[in-house]
Amino acid sequence: MKKSKGRMRDNVLYRRADAPVEARVEDLLGRMTLEEKVCQMGAVFPTSWEDPKINRLLTRGRFSPRKAAALLSPGPGHMSMPLRYLPIRKSVDFANAIQKFLVEHTRLGIPAIIHDESLHGCMLPGSTSFPQAIGLAATWDDALMHRVAQAIGRETFVRGIRQCLSPTINIARDPRCGRTEESYGEDPWLTSRMGVAFVRGVQSQGVAATVKHFAANFVGDGGRDSHAIHFSERHLREVYFPAFEACVREAGAMSVMPAYNALDGQPCACNRWLLTDVLKKEWGFDGVTVSDYLAVEMIHTLHHVAESFAEAGRKAAEAGMDIELPEAKCFKDLAGLIRAGDMAVAPVDDAVRRVLRLKFRLGLFENPYANAAAAVRVVGCAEHRALALEAARRSLVLLKNEGGVLPLANARTIAVLGPNAAIGRLGNYSTLHASAVSPLEGMRRRAGQRIKILHAEGCEINGQSRDGFARAVEAARAADMAVLFMGNTTKTEGEGRDRCRLELPGVQEDLIRDVAALGKPTVVVLIGGGAVAMERWIERVPAVVAAWCPGMEGGHALAQVLFGDVNPGGKLPLTFPRTTGQLPLYYNMKPSSRGYDYVDQRGVQPMFPFGHGLSYTTFKYGHLKIEPRVIPPNGSVTVSVDVRNTGYRAGDEVVQLYLSDLCASLSRPVKELKRFKRVRLARGQKRVVRFTLEGRDLAFLDRHLEPVVEPGEFEVMVGGSSAEGVKARFSVKAGVSVKRERA
To answer: Could you tell me the pTM of the whole model?
Structure first.
């Protein structure tokens, strides 16, 4: 295999690091053949679909130039996931071998962007696994999220991966969707803040973040993932677009992934209004759009709006899709379509400009290779494990604690029970082969020799056998108290595993009832990715903790919180209903014409509201002030509130501000989250927490879908959840139309 003439390339404009990016893009684009352009819009999947251990670029474990010449010529734009079973150093060597071939043995020497999943940690072996996304949202701490994302970006970068297919910023209004765990919950503002923090953190490390799935992916009928969506444009813009717009405009997201589903019959993967009119023209997005895996093919095979793969590729490219993942099965035909006169070259040129622009911004031409020594030093390092522990502590939500059962103070013998006790559950899209600390291990280490731990599984996650009940009940009978680790796994929820009911699977609820019947203090810890309905057992147990999938240090974090070394301060990022039949259920609904005295036969709702979370201490809110009380439309308002720790120990409180428009020309939500701040207060300490609301926070979309601030009265509520707080009102003196900001 002959090397390309790299010295000649060094003298051309696109190779000059000091030249403007756009000039480099145009110079390189002008040198490319049509086939080379189309290849930049595709990717190569290096492993076999049937067996991931079969690599199409290796021979006897070594990188094969012969195979590479057949698979990588004339040069793909992207590379899908390197071998996930390879240890750190070998995975870096593999990534570098790919880049070396592309740089030295293709005509123009264009390196590829290698990508992987990094939802809550890079998926390659050895990476740090942080709490699942829904758990990170439960911290209500965007500064912490930024630090976590920086660590994820750092571990991703040093392995030669320059794009992560994260974060997932879909709004999860129906937790029956198995992918709720990947989201930041049900609220647009909380999701926006967490998404912006993630994007900024990852991209600060030289890795492109990919916000997904655009749009409304998780709220099909009955919470069915990727099912058809029939929402009005107003509903999309009010609820499902804001987080994407924030990540694009504020955080400068370099990549967006369209969703699998169709909007009003038009698949998102070939929806020009979505990908071009809104994303690229209105929001000014100048990064790349990448398809979800096989989504372009599905235009033909699933949605049946194209008669062939070639037509599917044309529709997607003309709509604004820039990259087909995981391979160019449809885009490979674009060159033929253009030569036949069935497609213009302009969409291809636009897509390739975006791909090249991203590569120049990432510095791939100057530094396409990863450093194996740095990767070994950084990936899974002690600093990142400590951060994973901190994030896990902050993610835990104390849902119920009657009689102060928690923390575990005086128990000498504790029964640790349940199918999630002896294994560390990481959730979907998790680091492979990670050494996660289980709750049982964490409890035993914390208990030491002073406290005796009895363990029994009791039942399986989704099994029907009660054979283990007797042993679990006996362990609980012999103990001073029982802690049951219950919930779900990747086999009962996740991508491709939507739920028809939110009750605990299998016979877990029966085990809880049998143990609780002993009359011993009983704590239920819920492991999993979403809401759980608890109607059959909630009144029988005094304490419940939502632990989500707490990451590789989750066992230690749980033990520290349960024993009281750490005071829980997490809050729910989604509503927990009493029964599945109440769904969909979320806090920011619009008013019902039945009014609030209507008797809903589904029962009182919810079980635990959005934003709920208890502490081992108590907090009191007072002296809510709004200045000024009457403001001009282009002015701002400052909201201040006193928050006092009225308990006996230090603790965190998430101060939440909700806004209600009391009279508008169109029906508005009963309340909307507009600001939040997590604060730490010592015993007896009082702190004044201040927020500033601006015109955009008061605006809504008028009949023409343009932002407007109308004159009238607004009510502010500040408290520890969406259900209660102190209230005050202010007025807007005169209204003014606020035109939507255009790129």
So the answer is: 0.96
